Amino acid sequence: MHPATEPTDDVLVAAAAAGDEAAFEDLFNRHRRQVGRIAGRFFAQREQIEEITQDTFTKLYFALHTYHGTHEASFKAWLAQITVNACYDQLRRVRRRSEQTLGELSENETKDFSTQLRAARSDVEGALISRDLALKLLTRLSAEDRLVLTLLDVEGFSVAEIAEMTNWSISKVKVRAHRARAHLRRIMRKFV
Amino acid sequence: MFKRNPQNREHPDWAGKLVLRAAVADEQEIEAASESPFLFTRVRARIAERQRENESGGWQSLPLIAWRAIPAMALVASLAGGLMLWTARPANTENAANTPAVGFGMYEDALTDTTDPGVEQTVLSRNNLSHEDVLNIVIERGEVEKKK
């Protein structure tokens, strides 16, 4: 909730759509962290999060005239949708670039990862997996699989919420989640 | 016998979730990225770049526009042609059948004006003058002028 003196998101969107640069900057400053947090669920490097933030606000700028907010939360939901789509596009680009290597682990990395998993199983509280290894393994998943699993298992969104964010049908989200889990399970079986 | 062991699924699933959570950026990284200096300036620069691209896209799309205009232009041309033929068609179809057409519906009579003298015939029929009478008048007028 914003203080009474501050304009609401909807007011700022209307002003920005009319060409008010300051209103667009206010929107940016108000929501840059939200965009960064969502981007951080998919990408670990600072440069990647910045790239997603830039891409999201650029897309937002050109879509301002299509926004029709009805309540306080609708702008945030709309922005989350744009951010998730920007992440999805970036995941597809990354996947295309890394198709040759496709997350192959070296012998040492495989050993390390198996050790980390065993340690994590015995100490659930202190479970710690190397981020680099995790990122490398996740490049084996398609962009759709990665997107749906992250939104379900990391962000804790419901199937309906994911369907709304991605513009997919609920049944598509369910099928995609089922296949993605099966795929990730097959990858993990080699290490557990 | 064929029932799957749930533990076989649970452990890889648990490991998968662990991997997904490990791949997430830490809070410091997210904060640093969000508070990065000149981030808004870079957003503005990207917007300006996209706007330029959209404008130059107008020139690039000209052949496409021309391609789309071809059916409309063909339709207009055929309509104009049809209209021209329709307006040039003679009112009396019996006469039109006897006279050979010249060019696009232009009849020879219209160019040479030989078969239908119009006003001349009307004057002769009104005064009951034959062609010989007219010839005599012309000859007489010529002689009078010579005498003068």
- Tell me, briefly, the overall form of chain A: elongated
Distance between the termini of chain A: 46 Å
The amount of helix of chain A comes to over 70%
Order of helices and strands of chain A: HHHHHHHHH
Sheet with most strands: strand arrangement of chain B: 1-2
Are there runs of chain B of 5+ residues with pLDDT below 50, and where? none
SSE layout:
The complex is a heterodimer of chains A (192) and B (148).
Chain A lengths: L8 H9 L3 H22 L3 H18 L10 H24 L9 H16 L8 H8 L4 H12 L4 H8 L3 H20 L3
Helix pairs in contact in A: 1-2, 2-3, 2-4, 3-4, 4-7, 7-9, 8-9
Chain B lengths: L5 H17 L4 H8 L4 H22 L1 H27 L4 H6 L2 E2 L3 E2 H5 L6 H8 L4 H17 L1
Antiparallel strand pairs in B: 1-2
Describe the structure in your own words:
The complex is a heterodimer of chains A (192) and B (148). Chain A is 71% helix and 0% strand. Chain A contains nine helices and no strands. Chain A has helices at 9-17, 21-42, 46-63, 74-97, 107-122, 131-138, 143-154, 159-166, 170-189. In chain A, helix 1 packs across helix 2, helix 3 (46-63) crosses helix 4 and helix 4 (74-97) packs across helix 7 (143-154). The longest helix of chain A has 24 residues, at 74-97. Chain B is rod-shaped. Chain B has helices at residues 6-22, 27-34, 39-60, 62-88, 93-98, 108-112, 119-126, 131-147, and strands spanning 101-102, 106-107. The longest helix of chain B has 27 residues, at 62-88. Chain B has 148 residues and is mainly α. The A-B interface holds A 25, 28-29, 32-33, 35-37, 39-41, 43-47, 49-50, 53-55, 57-58, 61-62, 117, 120-121, 127-131, 133-135, 137-138, 149-150, 153-154, 181, 184-189, 191-192 and B 9, 11-26, 29-34, 36, 39-40, 42-43, 46-47, 50.
Short structural description:
The complex is a heterodimer of chains A (192) and B (148). With 192 residues, chain A is mainly alpha-helical.
Give descriptors for this structure.
heterodimer, A: 192 residues, mainly alpha, 9 helices, 71% helix, B: 148 residues, two-stranded antiparallel sheet, 2 strands, 74% helix
